[in-house]
């Protein structure tokens, strides 16, 4: 008996992006993402909002732009801690206070729960991972890229596939698009991270434009936010299979797709499927 997870509608691949700090260059990024149907997550430091959008120095967005930009365009707002600190160097209570402040401020601003986090400066250790969990975050993204498409095994130490500055970016894209994961034990996931202000600084917006043009619009790819992928993986883990594998129950609120013995099944929320 062979049972494997598949993404919504049975898709074998998923793509998401994760960008940090909330700068005015995110505006151009979100517009390009919308053009090509790509979605993702933006990690915000609510304690560093300026009074108005900035164009000089480190060009952070203001509260009003944050509220209007991300969620209405189908993206996720996640935490990057309130003051962008090196949390692994801090007392746990102070680090927890900073993480909770960011959740409270962002949720108050948007009216939406914030359940994801990206570690500022990639600063974390075992104690901070536990602190993130206690603060109610469902996942936390690192910057430890691994150039593969495997599903995360630890959502509180989630490794991206690549940064956009990787000289092998287009090679990785081609591998992801041309590869066929149907015979693998799990589907493929591509997660790219970075800071959108880098495109302006490096004068290479064409990198992101080419990425979106190449990776967008494929019928076999699920375009999702980080939290949607997190929730889907957890829903799959919550499926209850009979001891003999003859049926499965889905106690979650998310419809889940699986491949069992090379046949696709959709197990709808609250339902039982007999194989």
Question: Describe it for me?
Answer:
With 275 residues, the protein is an alpha/beta fold. Helices cover 31% and strands 21% of the residues. It contains eight helices and 14 strands. The protein has helices at 26-36, 63-69, 92-110, 126-134, 169-178, 197-202, 205-215, 226-237, and strands spanning 3-6, 13-20, 40-44, 76-79, 116-118, 139-141, 162-163, 188-194, 221-223, 240-241, 247-249, 256-260, 263-267, 272-274. The strands form four sheets. Strands 2, 3, 4, 7, 8 and 9 form a six-stranded parallel β-sheet that branches. The radius of gyration is 19 Å and the shape is globular. The mean pLDDT is 96.
Mean pLDDT: 96
| Cα Rg | 19 Å
Q: Give the topology string: H per helix, E per strand.
A: EEHEHEHEHEEHEHHEHEEEEE
Catalogue the unreliable spans: none
List the helices and strands and how they pair.
Blueprint (H helix, E strand, L loop, with lengths): L2 E4 L6 E8 L5 H11 L3 E5 L18 H7 L6 E4 L12 H19 L5 E3 L7 H9 L4 E3 L20 E2 L5 H10 L9 E7 L2 H6 L2 H11 L5 E3 L2 H12 L2 E2 L5 E3 L6 E5 L2 E5 L4 E3 L1
Parallel strand pairs: 2-3, 2-8, 2-9, 3-4, 5-6, 7-8
Antiparallel strand pairs: 1-12, 10-11, 11-14, 12-13
């Amino acid at each position: 008996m062979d049972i494997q997870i598949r993404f919504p509608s049975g898709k074998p691949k998923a793509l998401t992006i994760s960008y940090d700090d909330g700068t005015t260059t995110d505006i151009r990024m979100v517009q390009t993402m919308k053009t090509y149907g790509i979605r993702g997550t933006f990690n915000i430091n609510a304690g560093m909002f300026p009074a108005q959008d900035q164009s000089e120095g480190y060009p952070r967005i203001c509260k009003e732009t944050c509220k209007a930009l991300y969620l209405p365009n189908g993206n996720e707002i996640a935490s990057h801690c309130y003051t962008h600190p090196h949390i692994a160097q801090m007392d746990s209570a102070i680090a927890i206070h900073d993480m909770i402040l960011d959740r409270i401020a962002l949720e108050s601003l948007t009216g939406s729960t914030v359940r994801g986090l990206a570690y500022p400066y990639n600063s974390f250790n075992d104690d901070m991972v536990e602190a993130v969990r206690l603060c109610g975050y469902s996942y936390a993204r690192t910057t430890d890229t691994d150039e593969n498409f495997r599903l995360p095994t630890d959502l509180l130490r989630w490794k991206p596939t690549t940064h956009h500055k990787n000289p092998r970016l287009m090679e990785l894209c081609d591998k992801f698009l041309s590869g066929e994961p149907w015979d693998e034990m799990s589907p493929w996931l591509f997660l790219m991270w970075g800071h959108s202000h880098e495109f302006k600084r490096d004068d290479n917006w064409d990198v992101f434009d080419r990425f979106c043009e190449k990776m967008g619009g494929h019928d076999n790819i699920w375009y999702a936010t980080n939290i949607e992928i997190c929730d889907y993986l957890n829903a799959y883990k919550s499926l209850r299979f009979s001891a003999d594998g003859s049926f499965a129950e889905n106690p979650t609120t998310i419809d889940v797709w699986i491949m069992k013995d090379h046949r696709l099944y959709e197990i709808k929320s609250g339902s039982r499927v007999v194989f």
